[in-house]
Amino acid sequence: MKKLIAMLLAAVAVSNLGWGTERTPEPLHERVYLQTDQEFYLFGELVWLKMLTTTEQGIPLNFSKIGYVQLLNEQGTQAQAM
Asked: What is the pLDDT of residue 82?
């Protein structure tokens, strides 16, 4: 009888090895593309931006909703946008 109980406990232990373990999701790698309406801007001109995020394979993502942009020159940050 003790052998039967030990075998049943061993079978239950082996069948439960995979329970309770969660798979960690694959990390998401995004590529960010920033599109402007002109190549060069003069002081005071409006800058139109469009941001697009894709997977590494080029499939568009709707994951990131907010992007931060800084316009820089030699002295440092001149403008920031969200």
From this structure: 81
